[in-house]
Amino acid sequence: xxxxxxxxxxxxxxxxxxxxxxxxxxxxxxxxxxxxxxxxxxxxxxxxxxxxxxxxxxxxxxxxxxxxxxxxxxxxxxxxxxxxxxxxxxxxxxxxxxxxxxxxxxxxxxxxxxxxxxxxxxxxxxxxxxxxxxxxxxxxxxxxxxxxxxxxxxxxxxxxxxxxxxxxxxxxxxxxxxxxxxxxxxxxxxxxxxxxxxxxxxxxxxxxxxxxxxxxxxxxxxxxxxxxxxxxxxxxxxxxxxxxxxxxxxxxxxxxxxxxxxxxxxxxxxxxxxxxxxxxxxxxxxxxxxxxxxxxxxxxxxxxxxxxxxxxxxxxxxxxxxxxxxxx
Length: 328
Ligand SMILES: Cc1cc2nc3c(=O)[nH]c(=O)nc-3n(C[C@H](O)[C@H](O)[C@H](O)COP(=O)(O)OP(=O)(O)OC[C@H]3O[C@@H](n4cnc5c(N)ncnc54)[C@H](O)[C@@H]3O)c2cc1C
Ligand code: SF4
Fold this sequence. Notes:
Structural class: alpha+beta
Shape: globular
Low-confidence stretches: none
Bound molecules: flavin-adenine dinucleotide, iron/sulfur cluster
Order of helices and strands: EHEHEEEHHHHHHHEEEHEEEEHHH
Largest sheet: 5 strands, antiparallel
């Protein structure tokens, strides 16, 4: 048995100080991901600083948008009336993830920072560069059905697992972070990183930086947004691929469009090339398929993962055509 020191932080500043000053310390949110990793020996902190009960558990309407506290539970966020009306992609993404019990426990920050479900990462008997840098990547020559098709590296082909993060990427969320040097804001798109030579680093956060909130801005596109997820079972399964899409039409012309993909890469993949091709033109299925194909031109697939290209194209077309029909 391994001994752990448990500390319940009473303020964000106290939590930051406790973790920043101690390389053995780690934050604990709802614990639905971290405790699995503790049990498996994937992560071995000696101090857990519980931030799930900090007064960061409210959703504040700022007039121009929402400020979502880091400790807001996934169920509460999914059910929030303004999230449902003005940011439906977020509500749908949350409800597409995990189970009711897990969503009741999981926090906004913990959800963003959950780690990959790569089967080799979760099996400490196999080589994995993310778990043990320099040990190799078992997934490259192994079971490849869940592998990334965009932005992978020779060191790691894992995908990011969060549904919520994909929706937040399409909604241009800003992540508010408190560190030893003070507060900073990070576009959600820049929170997670591609693996490169350092797959052990999931994000651009420094040790000790605490997520305190996520901010969303209201927009016509955010209001007309959706989330679609393809998976092996109808519930309680991670995405094979997913799409968060947001659309604003001006007559027949696309005034604003946002597309983010899940199950495609080591981070939520914002399909900027596809968005640029669609903006200012009409919205129809063939144009969406062509734009998605252009975005996926750089896709690198293996025999087990090539289905993801067709699936990403298909669900993106379906999501955007449905949104356009709903608005016209
Ligand atoms: C059976 C099962 C099925 C699931 N299915 C899905 C699914 O389909 N889709 C999906 O998206 N998710 C799914 N999940 C994952 C689930 O959404 C995550 O486990 C959950 O969101 C993590 O939140 P948490 O608060 O429990 O995080 P924790 O486990 O407490 O923490 C996760 C990480 O975040 C860090 N952390 C926590 N709070 C902060 C903070 N404020 N600042 C900085 N770092 C912090 C912790 O140190 C840790 O590294 C599933 C989980 C399980 C167990
Ligand atoms: S894909 Fe990444 S997480 Fe999976 S085994 Fe390879 S290095 Fe580890």
